[in-house]
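Field guide to reading this record: the first block holds the primary sequence, the second block holds the structure written as discrete tokens, and the final block holds curator observations. Each block starts with its own label. This record concerns WD repeat-containing protein 63, catalogued under organism Dreissena polymorpha.

BLOCK 1 — SEQUENCE
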Amino acid sequence: MYTCSNKTGWSQTFVPDCVPEDPNALKTQIVRYCAVSSIENSHHAPITDIMWLPDHVEINRMGVPQENKGFESCQIFTCATDNCILVWDTRPTKGPQQQQQGAKPKDKDGTKNPIGVPDTFKHLDLTWKPMLKVHLHKSEPGGDHAPTKFSIAEKQGDRGALSKATDGGVPDKEASVTGGYFHSGKPESGREKRTLQTVKTHFFVGTEDGEVVYVDWMPQKDQDTGKIQTPKPDFYHTMHDGPIMTVQRSPFFMDILLVVGGWNFTIWKEAVVSGPILQSAPNPICMTSGFWSPSRPGVFYISKVDGSVDVWDLLDKTHEPSITQSVSPSAITKIYPHAVSHKQHLLAVGDSSGTLHILEIPWSLRLPAPNEVTGVANYFEREVKRRGFVVQRWDFREHEKRELEAEAKKKAGIAPNVLLTDEEIEYRLKLEYQAEGNFLRELGITKEEEPLPQT
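BLOCK 2 — STRUCTURE
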């Protein structure tokens, strides 16, 4: 085993071919599944993203976030390109019939199962159904959104929402939003689960068409049909020219998201609905993945199909990457930085040929600068103000354009569109009725004048 380094400070570890002493040392261990979901109730397209819900929160069948008293993750979010996101629960649906954790399975004759598959989730096998379905409708005709990646606001380990929970029931705000579908009365008993009001039910979704969608997973009552269904997205913008490959929140700012897809990346702030606060210029090489630095708030990594990794430092440059490191001759499919210790950070890079590369991150990219968190936060705040100024200028230019069009029509002698009052509309209808009656009398269809309708 040896290590080489280059001028940028990166180092890569190589393992030469050798014959192991134990012939079974390099055999791949097989992990067998414990349960399979019901085919009829599963996704109808390949699953593109999956995530466990944090262990301090769970959601009921109506999407209301509640306290998880067991503090064990028991629900899973999955998304696929079949236009929906499903929520699965690993617990049995009724009765304490759950098998003992870690019980050793046996065959019918009582002998030990040689495969060694535990029956922990035996109650789910081939009968597992999602408890909640989030369908991504579009606001206009032309198909629905096909999700590829998603990100929720709640974070594993952050249990601040528990201190602001309410005892039982559902908040009045949620009850009013759902059109009275929920009841926000007193808890039925002391065992009622507490509702977590501060947990955001809105989340970001990246789609196959390069759209960034912001939608609420809590179903609402449709005013037209009266059905309980997923509401329309609060907003969505098409900012990428390819499928979204990464939707990840910053570990330092939970309302800041990095989105990578196609030939560019964008950075979003959750409170800004008009668009991203930062959008990169189109890159000549397609991007495949992205990841925030675990130790520096202004640094993130972008992988590309030419086998290189771009390192972006927002405090250094925002128009181009600070460093571009060539890693593999094949396209990179996934990257993952990890802090082994305070003095050693590694970057795992996987490529399309099935090779895993481990790179050591130099000290300049792992040690944060003094007050870097404050500096990056100020930068994001300036970008939010800049975005607001851009939207204001758009509105001003649109208003100015309408005034110029009206002035041009006036000079050309074209009367502008005027809104008539009810009396003027009624007078015009009477004139049209009289003209029609005169025409019918001229044709001999009617011989005497019919009275006008009384109003």
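BLOCK 3 — OBSERVATIONS
The first helix runs from residue 172 to 177.
The first strand starts at residue 2 and ends at 5.
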